Amino acid sequence: MIAPFGIRLRSLMNKRGALCVGIDPHASLLSAWGLDDDARGLERFAMTCVEALAGQVAVLKPQSAFFERHGSAGVAVLERVVREAREAGALVITDAKRGDIGSTMTAYAQAYLDQSSPLATDALTVNPYLGYESLRPALDLAAAQRCGIFVLGLTSNPEAGQVQHAVGPQGGSVAAAIVAGVSADNAGCPDLGDVGLVVGATIGSAVTDLGIDLAASHAPLLAPGIGAQGAGAGELAKVFGAAVRNVLPSSSREVLGAGPSVTALQDAADRTLDACRAVLGEP
Asked: Which stretches make up the Orotidine 5'-phosphate decarboxylase domain (predicted)?
């Protein structure tokens, strides 16, 4: 039986470095690579990323929407990306941000987390803003399948505070309630749990202002915005504090913009990892 997701993630972060590279086939990136904006161009782009990076970085994160927009042919490419990236040794977080209730949430979970599914992945991003417990079918199936879940916690989009900073009937913020749910699901984990949080590296003092203890959650912290995207050592100390060791920086365009050369993509990933190590204080 494979180890739980959190254990596998920590092991790869230690071995390959703490970096997640997003595979985001924007139409503009396809064009920049000299590719047509169709399923064939998508496949060439995505599989070049897998060839270059799946044996090098700890985590790859395909954004499902950019595959889905090409219909069934695009979803078939996503299936291949996830399968071949995992075979090459990377962990895969499918960035689909699914969120629903009851049998529909169960179906989403089965699609991405049941390891007999064609879309089976190592971890899935989910949206908890129908209430944290609405995620229970995905949380339970992930635990049974030894997969991970990344819950949107404190995101950096300008509109996020309207919901995430809002105060609930018990007096705490919505974001604090989400983190409390994650903490409960990770209870007893000595290191990284299997339930992670998405926390933007550019959110400033929001974590402290809302009285949230990220370190106590034992959550892997998927953090867009580090390094070339603008967040340096000072910002990280303010956002993550004692939880900084659990941060998994996520970068897309800084790496993908170097394509289509495989070697150039690998070099860009190395540079991004070095930048992340510098701001995270890693050796």
From this structure: 18-268
The residue among 58, 62, 54 whose CA lies nearest residue 79 is 62
* C-alpha–C-alpha distance, residues 54 and 10, integer Å: 17
Q: Is the pLDDT of residue 163 over 70?
A: yes
Q: Is the pLDDT of residue 279 over 70?
A: yes
> Residue 135, by phi and psi: left (phi above 0), alpha (psi -120 to 50) or beta?
alpha
Question: What per-residue string of b and e applies to 91-126 under the rule 16 or more CB within 10 Å gives b?
Answer: bbbbbbebbbeeeebbebbbbbbeeeeebbbbbbbb
In the chain, what are the domains? 5-278 (3.20.20.70)
> Which helix or strand (DSSP H or E) is residue 21 part of?
strand 20-23
Tens of pLDDT, residue by residue over 85-105, are: 999 999 999 999 999 999 999
Number of residues written out for the chain: 283
